[in-house]
Input
Amino acid sequence: MKSLKVILGVSLASLSVFSYSSDSFAESASTFAPSEVTSVSNIEVKNPINSIPNEEIYEVTVEPQSITLQATSASFEWKNFGKGSGEKASNNSISWSGNNKTVTLTVRQYEHISSTGNTETTGDAHIIYDLESSSGNRAGAKQLDGLFNGSNTGTVTWSNVKPGTYNLIIKNNGTRYATASGTFAAQ
Output
């Protein structure tokens, strides 16, 4: 009896590779396939890669119908928002599953003091940052005070954040308009 060896590969090779080997074709046909294989039309069987006595090897390409990628870092930017403008949520979010993680915010922020012609005077901003999960839970508000501009950046860290999908929440706690931009990432 010939054995059938099937090598399954996801079309995006960096995601994962599955392999399966069986002593009989009937057994392999009834074996549970990875969740990405949703129908026979998703499978492309190529000519045998190798054929030796008592064994045939085929390469099968699996084309998933959908893939969810979890972004563990995102960027944000708000310009000229006032103290009375309330909380703002980032358009981008970060997401992960598994273990709790540390989330670090790296930010440039400043308060607009005055503007004359093409010259702007900036000063210390007072901005409150928080993370909000898709279920509405918060990581804990933290205020960052200071002028962080150019290569000088401020940092806010939340430890032991539960897995989920999070947006950055920001609120100007100063007396003037402020600008803030940067990234937040789970590690």
